[in-house]
Each structure stands twice: as C-alpha cells, then as structure tokens.
Write a structure and sequence with these properties.
Family: Belongs to the G-protein coupled receptor 2 family. Adhesion G-protein coupled receptor (ADGR) subfamily.
Oligomer: single chain
Coiled coil: 124-151
Largest sheet: 12 strands, mixed
Radius of gyration: 25 Å
Strand order of the largest sheet: 1-2-3-5-7-8-10-12-13-14-15-17
Protein name: G-protein coupled receptor GRL101
Order of helices and strands: HHHEEHEEEEEEEEEEEEHEEEEH
Strand content: 15-25%
Number of strands: 18
GO cellular component, one term: plasma membrane
Keywords: Coiled coil, Leucine-rich repeat, Receptor, Repeat, Signal
Length: 352
C-alpha cells in the first residue's frame, strides 16, 4: 500500500465512531509507525480495489472503511462489494451526496457501525427496508454535519434486532412525524441540532428499552407523556436543552422509575409548576435549568421546602433584586412578601 497521510480527518472519524480518546491516541501512534501492517490483507481489501474513493484501516475489531466524495449509490456499490470478503466492522461515508442507500447493498457485509459525516443523505433506502443483510449485525447508526434536509423513514429500520444507538447531529430534519418502530435493542437515541419543531404524539413510545434520549438544540415547544414509553422502566437520561419549552405536562415523568438526569437548560421557562416538577425535584440525581428566564415570585415558593436533586442548576432572572440567585437559596425570608402581600423590598438579601 502506498503511503497515505495520517490526517486529522482520520482522527475525527475514529472519535466519531465511538472510540475513546486514549484508544484513539494509541491507534494514532501505531498508525504512524505501522501503517503498512494496519492495512493487512486479513482485514482490508486491496488498495487498488477501493482507491481513490476509500481508505481501509485495520483495528482490533476488524476493518474500518472510510469513503468520501461519493456522488451516487452506483459509485458506492463496487466499493462495498470489494470489502465483502473481509471482516469489516465500520463504514463511514464522508463529504458525499446520496439520494439513498440501496436496500440490498449490504446483503453480504458484516458492518456493525455505519456513519455519515458531512454527507447529504435524503433517505435511508429506496424500498421499505434499509440496510438489508445487517439486521442481526448493525449496532450503531450515526449522521453528523449535513446541512441539507433529510426525510428519513424510520420504519425502514423495523427489522433491525441489534441496533443499540442512533445518533443524529446537525442534520436538518424539521419534524419527527412518525412513530419509531419498536426497536427492542435501542438504548440511545439522539437527534440534536436537527431543527425539529414537530414530534409525533407517540414518536418514541415503542422504544421500551431506551435508556438515553437526546433532543437538544432543536425547536421543540411542546412535549407530551405519550411520546415516550409507558412505562419507561430503563429510561435514565432525558436531554431537552436548547429548545423552546415553557411548560411540561403534569404527568411528564410518570412511569419512569429509573430516571436520574433531566436537562432543560436554555429553554423558555419562566416558572416551574409544582404539579410538573415536584417529582423530578424529589427523585432525580441531576436537574439542569440554567439559561431559563425564571421569575422568582410566589409561584416558586413550593421549592423552598422541597428536596433538591444532588446536582441542581437554576437561577432567578427576575425580579432584578434576585437576579442571579440560585433557586436552591430561595427562603421564606426572601419570599416573605408572598405571605404578607408586601412588595419585594429593594434591599432583600440574596443569602439566608
């Protein structure tokens, strides 16, 4: 194999596919000194069969195929075919434009991780099913940094029995207007910075083993309990930071016995209603509300005597005299005007 520069782009792909930073550094040093060995014929196809579009590297889990500047599904087909005899564990398609991935493209492949990096992919498949042949292999599906609209039909993943992670970031989707198929293996679902404004009323209700849900950095103004599994016995983390929420339904957290962390930072909450927030205050280990325009008035008095999560971040932004005060420091003295109907004095102390 001719010399191939070990670039920052390769390091980015390694990180993108979920390898730890310590492992990345070890691999990076190994690549510098043993690049010829890493392209071993036992894990990778010959360079001639995949160049110039693709590069293959061998790691402990098998071969990683990285392809870029692919302009059509037909251009991709011979590259995937060339790698079929080998033990490939990951495929990353970079800086490409594809209308779809042919449904039968992976019939004879063994990929466990597939990612799209700075790639426009309008749909997952041209048929009812996506990634046929990988139903009992594919574990991770990622897409990052595609500044184009994508219209993915999630039902095309319905036959995948080992898919544990779906992570979408910086891909314009605008809406999640259908239910996800009941993927029993799915543990992490992230759809972040995707300009999501509309969510189907039952979008994630069939994901009974979901543990982590990231919907940060979207345009979501409304959430309902019906969107999530009920019960959601394994759900531990919900991240809705950076959206447009100003309220939550009173039953939002019902049936979530193992929920530990909720991030609602940088939304548009101005108050925290007791009927919606009492349960998370008393049961969560972490509750983040930084960056909301919270008005510390009599509606917040219930918080004073309520148990707080071990990690709790939220600050008053009004009235002016309380601006910056953490909600953990609200006291009867600070809010004494609620009982006496007095006007909040200008010299009210910000600490007990």
């Amino acid at each position: 194999m001719s010399d191939v520069p070990i670039s920052m782009e390769l390091k980015e792909v390694l990180s993108y596919t979920g390898l730890t930073s310590k492992y990345i550094m070890s691999l990076f040093l190994l690549l510098i000194s043993l690049s010829a060995i890493l392209s071993s014929v036992w894990a990778c196809p010959s360079e001639e069969s995949i160049a110039p579009a693709c590069l293959c590297k061998e790691f402990g889990e098998g071969g990683m195929l990285m392809c870029k500047n692919i302009s059509s599904a037909e251009d991709l087909r011979p590259l995937i075919t060339a790698a079929e005899p080998y033990d490939m564990f990951a495929l990353t398609i970079m800086q490409s434009v594809l209308l779809h991935i042919p449904s039968a493209l992976f019939k004879n492949s063994k990929y466990r991780k597939i990612g799209f990096l700075r790639t426009q992919l309008l749909s997952l498949s041209e048929s009812d099913l996506a990634f046929e042949g990988l139903e009992d292999r594919l574990e991770e599906l990622r897409a990052t940094a595609a500044r184009y609209s994508a219209h993915w039909d999630w039902s095309q993943l319905k036959n995948h029995r080992r898919l544990k992670l779906i992570d979408i970031d910086l891909v314009e989707m605008h809406a999640l207007d259908q239910e996800f198929p009941p993927l029993k293996s799915l543990k992490l679902l992230g759809i972040s910075r995707a300009e999501i404004a509309v969510i189907h009323p039952n979008a994630f209700s069939g994901l009974e083993n979901l543990e982590i849900l990231y919907l940060r950095g979207n345009w979501i103004a409304k959430m309902s309990r019906s969107m999530l599994p009920n019960p959601a016995k394994k759900l531990a983390t919900i991240d809705l930071s950076g959206n447009l929420l100003n309220t939550l339904p009173k039953d939002m957290f019902e049936g979530m016995p193992n929920l530990m962390e909720v991030n609602l930072s940088y939304n548009t909450f101005t108050t925290l209603r007791k009927e919606s927030f009492l349960w998370p205050f008393e049961h969560l280990q972490a509750l983040m509300l930084t960056g909301n325009e919270l008005r510390c008035d009599c509606r917040m008095k219930w918080i004073i005597q309520t148990r707080k999560p071990l990690y709790f971040t939220a600050n008053c932004t009004a009235p002016q005299v309380l601006k910056g005060l953490g909600l953990s420091y609200l006291t009867n003295k600070v809010l004494k005007f609620c009982d006496s109907r007095e006007t909040l004095p200008l010299n009210t102390t910000m600490r007990e």
